[in-house]
Each structure stands twice: as C-alpha cells, then as structure tokens.
Amino acid sequence: MNFDLQGGPYNAALTPVLHLYQTGFEQMKMGEASTIGLMLALIIYTLTMMQMKLTSKEDH
After folding, report:
1. Please, which pLDDT band fits residue 9 given cuts at 50, 70 and 90?
2. Which of 23, 42, 47, 60 sees the fewest Cβ atoms within 10 Å?
C-alpha cells in the first residue's frame, strides 16, 4: 500500500501527528520528533484537565 503523506497543497492538511511522523521517520530527526510528541502530549493533557474541570459535577 502506498500512502501519500504530503499534507496537501502548502501543507494545508498537515496534522501535528503527521508532522511528527514525517520529522521522525522520513527526515530521521528523532530528537525533534520526540519534542513534538512531548509537546503534543502536554497540550492534550492540559485540554483534558480543563475539560474535566469544566464538566465536573460537584455534589455539595
């Protein structure tokens, strides 16, 4: 199977995960890819904590 991982015209459809893949495995920049992965994980964690805080129901 051949996948086109170009990201569309001017990288318009390039997602952070696709960028991470291209950086780490196509360009062989593992350090940069690790940093991208860590930042992505921190952003997801922060957004998850905010959502949990906003949607939590307190029974007082």
Report:
1. confident
2. 60
Whether residue 25 is contained in a domain is answered as: yes
Does residue 4 lie within any of the structural domains?
no
Three-state secondary structure of 15-44: CHHHHHHHHHHHCCCHHHHHHHHHHHHHHH
What pLDDT is recorded for position 1? Answer: 46
The answer to whether the beta carbons of residues 13 and 19 sit under 8 Å apart is no
For residue 2, tell me if it sits in a domain: no
Listed residue (9, 7, 10) closest to 21, CA to CA = 7
Quick one: which of 20, 41, 17, 42 has its CA closest to 29? 20
Domains of the chain: total: 1
